[in-house]
Amino acid sequence: MTDQVENTSERKIAIIRREHFNAAHRLHNPNWTKEKNKEIFGKCNNPNYHGHNYELEVKVIGYIQSETGYVIDTKILSDLIKNQITNRFDHKNLNLDVTEFKNLNPTAENIAIVTFNILRSHLDQKLELKIKLYETPRNYVEYPF
Using 50, 70 and 90 to split pLDDT, how confident is the model at 6? Predict the structure, then answer.
């Protein structure tokens, strides 16, 4: 058996942080009739909105830094998600309270893309980023895939 440790700075690895937020939304296309919105979006088109307990997984992929042993410090990642996403979305009506959804239907797909774009702008470009958003335990989206 050897005492040498493989050079981990030459291999990519992923770190995943899971967070949670609650938010309300209404799926609605203002260019459609009331009937078409109800046909396409069903209960999700409720004029009084509805809510979800979202689970968010943020995956950061990169090389381990030899000085720290980290791809990214989990505290930094946690704070970034909290400050940029959770504080922005948690206990909010996405349609009414979140600027990014003023003219964008807040589907799970669009929430994941908005989340990606916000976080991407705060991460070192050499790090890869992937988002997984669970709207329910059985329904989730991934971006990019």
Answer: low
